[in-house]
Design brief:
By secondary structure, this protein is an alpha/beta fold. The protein is 38% helix and 20% strand. The chain binds adenosine-5'-diphosphate and zinc ion.
Length: 295
């Protein structure tokens, strides 16, 4: 079976071909310019490959509600050329195949849950700390959508008493993304994040914020495992710091077998940075199955 997968990011579009076992057989990547510039190359790529379904994990916010008149649109994105763009419609019109659609982070969560580090649990969270903070959530085997979809990178955090940085998010002075994503680190400290590797203060503060976010997710969604990905998490010294801080903040309030072993509870992603594209593959497979059942 030949399946198409698209990881639609604000910086680049990764198009790939794979199969039902999660194997990626071919891929190409192009920069995300305007739809007029970027869509034709992607359409051509998938047309040539004669795919049977396409899955899209997409930057957002997006409308992933099949009952909505604007299903398949990228909605209020700050990337204005893509705002209100019907990306699913465009692919469907050109390719005539089932198209699965979800957020990029729900896609990554699904990729890991299908073929990666969370395949043994039915409830998990995928957090990316990169250009922004994004959170994908699976509960009882289903990706969480609700009213829109989780936007849990924007949860409000308590500031560190010594942190005078005003925050990077234009909407919230003290949200997680505005305080802890890569651009916030770089603006606060005036250096590229990877050039700050030796500055312990940077990562202490970073762990302070990320752990607060995770504690809120743990108490709300009760995930059986949490995956941390994204560029900032290349600073692997963060993992033990975050685990310690999560433990400190929970303060023994909940005691589960999962929380007893923090090293297997809060973990890095496991698919060599293919979790997003593999998740998109799974979105396609799920959609194919759904359409098959519908007849
Ligand atoms: P995106 O979020 O656009 O998909 P990434 O997850 O790679 O991309 O995130 C990019 C951000 O991660 C940048 O702000 C950069 O500063 C930060 N970053 C990338 N590599 C590293 C690193 N080795 N150490 C710390 N921060 C990094
Ligand atoms: Zn925000």
């Amino acid at each position: 079976m030949t399946i198409g997968a698209l990881e639609a990011g604000g910086t680049k579009m990764v198009c790939a071909i794979g199969n039902e076992n999660g194997e990626i057989l071919d891929r190409m990547s192009i920069p995300t310019l305007s739809p007029g510039e970027t869509m034709p190359a992607m359409l051509e790529y998938f047309q040539e490959k004669e795919i049977q379904a396409l899955g899209i994990g997409c930057f957002g916010p997006i409308d992933a509600d099949r009952n909505s008149p604007t299903f398949g649109h990228i909605t209020t994105t700050p990337k204005l050329e893509w705002a209100n763009y019907n990306i699913v419609g465009k692919f469907q019109e050109a390719l005539h195949v089932p198209v699965g659609f979800d957020t990029d982070v729900n896609g990554s969560c699904l990729g890991e849950a299908t073929w990666g580090i969370t395949r043994d649990v039915d409830s998990s969270i995928y957090v990316t700390v990169g250009t922004g903070v994004g959170v994908g959530i699976m509960v009882n085997g289903q990706l969480l959508h609700g009213m829109l979809h989780p936007e849990a990178g924007h949860i409000l955090l308590q500031r560190h008493p010594e942190d005078t940085y005003p925050g990077k998010c234009p909407y919230h002075p003290n949200c997680m993304e505005g305080l802890a994503a890569g651009p916030a680190i770089e603006e606060r400290w005036g250096k590229k994040a990877y050039d700050l590797a030796d500055n312990d203060k940077v990562w202490e503060l970073e762990a302070f914020y990320i752990a607060q976010g995770l504690v809120n997710y743990i108490l709300t969604v009760s995930p059986k495992r949490i995956i941390l990905g994204g560029g900032v998490m290349h600073q692997t010294q963060l993992f033990p710091m975050i685990r310690e801080e999560v433990k400190r903040l929970l303060n023994g309030y909940i005691q589960t077998k999962e929380l007893k072993d923090m090293d297997t509870y809060i973990v890095p992603c496991s698919l060599n940075d293919n979790q997003g594209i593999m998740g998109a593959l799974k979105l396609a497979l799920t959609e194919l199955e759904r359409e098959g059942q519908r007849g």
